Amino acid sequence: MITLYGFGTGFGLPEISPFVTKTEVQLKMAGLPYRKERAMPPASPKGQLPFIDDGGEAVADSTFIRAHIERRYGFDFDAGLSLQERAQAWAFERMIEHHVYWALVGARWVDPINFAKGPSHFFDGAPEHNREKLREDAQFRVAENYLLSGLGRHAPDDDVDLAVRSLFALSVQLGDKAYLMGNKPCGVDATAFGALAGILTPFFESGLRQRAEGFPNLTAYVDRMMDNYYPEFAWTPLRQAA
């Protein structure tokens, strides 16, 4: 059986990391049995989560895990899509992971109130004499990566404006369909759901979340995906929480 290593529940979500969420949803899409274990990034072959152990073979990075599932188990996450649609799905996935994701990082890690409420607690178990330094160092490293992503070079309102353009693109692509590429979920839906749920969780207050709530089809999409793939999780539908 596959073992999936992730952060676990938190921040009002069934899984803290959008990338772990992506892989977990894709495992469910593929109908593969798995068990889930908590881990921290240093345990991974690439120093990041998720990673899986599949019969003694460790595979890290959500995109490479998807490729592993497709290759080993013969599952096509984009079955039914044309070549053009597959290309579009890949482009949206890259936009989500290399643009929308970093806006989420800024809202969680750079905003001091949200950092104190959320990521700072990753270090609660550290020795007391070193705890605050570990928190400060981690926040600094993430903020540095946020800067290098490009979004962090702008004023807070400007980076949200840029992220909202990507959310608008997702909203237009979704339209009145159930899923991004049609009426059947495909690989990119796992990616989009992980990021959008991370932005829209009521746990954090942010300008990004407020702007994202202005796309009713995206909030309904997150509710739909949550109901489909995490029916056991105590999630208050966004249409009710608003």
From TrEMBL:
InterPro entries in the record: FAX/IsoI-like, Glutathione-S-Trfase_C_sf, Glutathione_S-Trfase, Metaxin_GST, Mito_Protein_Transport_Metaxin, Thioredoxin-like_fold, Thioredoxin-like_sf
Annotated Metaxin glutathione S-transferase domain residues: 165-225
Any single Pfam family the record assigns to this protein: GST_C_6
Domain Thioredoxin-like fold: 18-113
Protein name, as recorded: Glutathione S-transferase
Source organism: Bradyrhizobium diazoefficiens SEMIA 5080
